[in-house]
Amino acid sequence: MSEIIPIGPYHPLQEEPEFFRLHVEGERVIKMDIEIGYNHRGIEKLAESKSWDQVVFLVERICGICSTSHPAASINAMEDLGGIEAPERAQYIRTIVCELERIHSHLLWLGLAGHFIGYNTVWMWVWKYREIICDILDKMTGNRQSYAMFKVGGVRRDILDEDIPWFLKMLDKFKPALDLFKGAVMDDPVIHARTKGVGVLTTEQAKKYCVVGPTARPSGVAIDVRKDDPYFAYEWLDWDMVVLQEGDVFAKVACRILEMYESMKILEQCFKKMKPGIVDLHVKELPPGEGIGRAEAPRGEVYHYVRSDGSNFPVRYKVRAPSYMNIFSNEVAVLGEQVADAALILAAVDPCYCCTERIIAIDHDTNEEKKLSSSDLLRLSHEKTIRVKKELGIS
Amino acid sequence: MTWKEINKKIHDRFDKKIVKWFEHNEHRIYVDIDPADLVEFGRFLFEDLQARFIIASGVDTPRDGIEILYHFDFFQLPYVFSVRVFIEKPKLEVDSLVPYIKGAEWIEREISELLGIQFNNHPDMRHLILPDDWPEGKYPLRRDQ
Amino acid sequence: MGIKLKALTKSPWVYHLSTGSCNNCDIEILDCLTPRYDLERFGIVLVGSPRHADALLVTGNMTMKCIPRAKEVYEQMPKPGVVIAIGTCALGHGVFDGSYVMPKTVDEVIPVDIYIPGCPPKPEGIIAGVAKLLAMLKQKA
Fold it and tell me: Which domain holds residue B45?
C-alpha cells in the first residue's frame, strides 16, 4: 500500500513555494513528483519590454539570494553580444561582490540545514556571523541584498580605497567564525549519522540529470564556470575547485563549507591586486546578434541567452537558473530513503522547500484524505536526530 | 578530449547534415541543423562526446516559425555549443530528446506551454509552470499574441 | 472584539506567506528573528501553520497559481488577525508590473492592514512597521 505525502507549496523557511508529492510505502519513498510554477513571474517576457539597462535590474529580482549572479550572467551575455571587455578594476569589483554573495548564500543555507535536522543553535550562530558579510555588502554597495552594482561595460559604483582596510578587518573577524562552523559541522557525530550515505546522487546520475554547482561537484563532476569558462577576474587569481566523490548530503555540506574558504582566498587576493583605474566604459548601444553569458552562482551555473535586433530592447531573453536542473535531480536522490530524511535531502540541493503549510496524506485504498498538522516532515526529522543522539549515547 | 578532437569528430560524422556553422567568437559556436537530424545529433553529442546539456531556448521569429536552440557544453572546456533547429508553422512538432537526455524533461515541457511546440515521444507533457486552468491555445512567448 | 485585539498585541505569532517573491524579503524576515535583531524578545514567533497565527506576513507578487492558495491560507488564520504586506512586489507589482501571470495585487486578493515598502525593506524597516501596527491595534482595542 502506498501513500502520497504532499509537501508545500508553502513552508515557513523562505524561498519559492514548491510542491513535492512523496509517494511512500511505509517509511520508504518510492516516487516523487515535483510541481513548480508558483513563482513563475513571466520574467522572460517582461525582459522584452525593458531596455538593456533595465534588464539588469529585472534579472536581479529573479532570486534574492543570487541577486548578483543573475546580473553577472546577464552582463556577460550582453558583453558577449557586443564584444565588450570591461576595465580591470571593474572586473575585480565584480568578483568581490560575487564572492561575498557566495559566502552569504552558503551561510544562509548552512543555517537552514542546521534547522532542518533540529540544530537551531547552528541556525542562530551562522546567521549571526552572516551579518558581518551583510554589513560589508551594505557599506560597499548601499544595500544588504539586491546590490545593483553591475552594468554593461563596468560597475555602477567604485569601491573607495579608504574603505578597504575596514573590509579586510571585517573579513578577519569572520575567519574564526568559519573555523567554528567547520568544526561544529565536520566533527559532529550526530550530523555524520544523519547525513552520511543519505540521498546519494552518483556521478552517472549527476551527469544524466545535468546538475550543476554544489550539487554536481560533491558527486565527482568537476564543473565550475569560474574555472571552465573564466569570466570577471577569476583567471587572474589563485584558487581551487572543491570536488568530492561521495555524492551524499554530507559531501554537499562539506563542499559548501570548503568553498567558503576558497571564497575568502579570492576576496583577499582581489583587495590586494586591485589597481586604481576607470570602472565604467559607458556603453551606449548593443549590436544585433546573439549572446550567451554564464556565471557561477552559489547554487551552480546561471545561464543567460539574449538576442538583439540592434534596438534598445532584447528580442528574446532566456534565463536558466541552477535550481532548474538541481531540483529535478531530487527525483532520484530521495528514492528508497526514509521520509524523515526526505526534508534534508530536498534541502541539500539548496532549493528550499519544506513543509509549512499542512500535509495531506492520501490513502489510496480508502481514498481518504488525512489532514495532518503542520511541519510534520520537520518534526519527523527532529525526532530522528533525537533518536540518533540516543543511539550514539549523546543526550 | 580537446576541442580539436571534438570539432573533428563532429565534422567527420555530421559534415553533410550541418546546414550552417557560425562562430560568434572563439568560444560561442552556433550550428544550424534540420529538425529531422536533431535526435541523432543530440544523442551523438551527449553520449559519444560526453557533452553536458545546459538548456534549450525557444525563440519565436518573424520568419513564420520557431527556433529552438539546444545549448551544450563540454566539461572543463570554455565552449558553448548551440544547436539550432527551425520549426516551420503551422506544424509545430519536433522529436523529444528526453529518452536520451533526462535533464531536458522540464525545459521541453516549458517550451511546449510557452511557445506551443509539440514534442514527440515526451513521457510527460503536463503543465509545468503555468496554472492548470491556463486557456488552451494561448502561448505567452508567441509574437502574434 | 476589544479583549481579543488586546491579546493580539501582546505576543503576535506570525506566519510567512510567499506569493511568488524573489526571496529577498523572505530572508530579511528571517533575519529579524536571528540574533542581531531578535524579534523573539517581544514574543513574535514564526509559526509553521496559519491556524496558529495572529498575523500573516505576505511577500511577493501574487502569481496566478498562488491566488487560491493565498485565499485558503487567509481563511485558515483565526480572526481577528492582521495581514502585513512586505516589499515593493506585495504593494504593487514593482518591477514585474505588466506580467501575464499577475492579474491581481496582494490587496485585491486578501485585505491588507499595513504596507512595508522597500526592495527589500531592511530588517529595521520591518520591525518599525510591525511596531506601528501594534501601536495602532492598541489604540483600537
Answer: 3-95
